[in-house]
Amino acid sequence: MTIPTEPQAHGLRLVVGCDEAGLQYKDVIRADLEADPRVLSVVDVGISGTEDTAYPHVAVEAARLVIAGEADRAILICGTGLGVAISANKVKGIRAVTAHDSFSVERSILSNDAQVLCMGQRVIGIELARRLAREWLGYAFDPASNSAAKVRVISDYEDLPE
Fold it and tell me: pLDDT tens digits, residue range 46-75?
């Protein structure tokens, strides 16, 4: 298990996003990330006010930035965290998870090499959401771990004919 205590050499490049059901949490978490010394940059693709943008558009935009190499990871917030996870997972190569507890956040990286963490503003309190986001930044996937072969199998399924 690899739990780095120091930031990556270049710092993490992150994307945050939300729909109207996750705006409050997204803004608080974005501010936390911007103040975190492990974070190099934060791009906000979520709504910023009263606009009504459907969460699939936000989630897919964030996931595409990760796949394009313009960001290392993304944190997405909606009412439950489920819709943004489903949407982000439509982008080939993305592994997005909804996690509302520390163990699941840990395993999302260490077992599944997830690049996108999704949470629900209507499901957990803001202090827990902030804590989970901080914890998530501290984990790094070990490509030599036993889980690496399973992550490769997940990726291989994306290339199978339908």
Answer: 888 877 889 999 999 999 999 999 999 999
Percent of the chain residues past pLDDT 70, beyond the cut = 94
CA dihedral for 93, 99, 105, 110, sign (positive or negative): negative
Q: Could you say which of 15, 60, 78, 118 is catalytic?
A: 78
- What's the maximum distance between 2 C-alpha atoms anywhere in the chain? 45
Q: What is the distance between the alpha carbons of residues 24 and 33, in angstroms, rounded to a whole number?
A: 15
Residues 6 or more apart whose CB falls under 8 angstroms from that of 143 comprise none
| pLDDT band, residue 160 (cuts 50/70/90) | confident
| 8 Å CB contact between 91 and 60 | yes
E strand spans, the chain: 12-18, 39-44, 73-78, 96-98, 116-120
For 80-99, b/e burial (b = at least 16 CB within 10 A) is: bbebbbebbbebeebbbbbb
The DSSP code for 11 is -
118 is catalytic: no
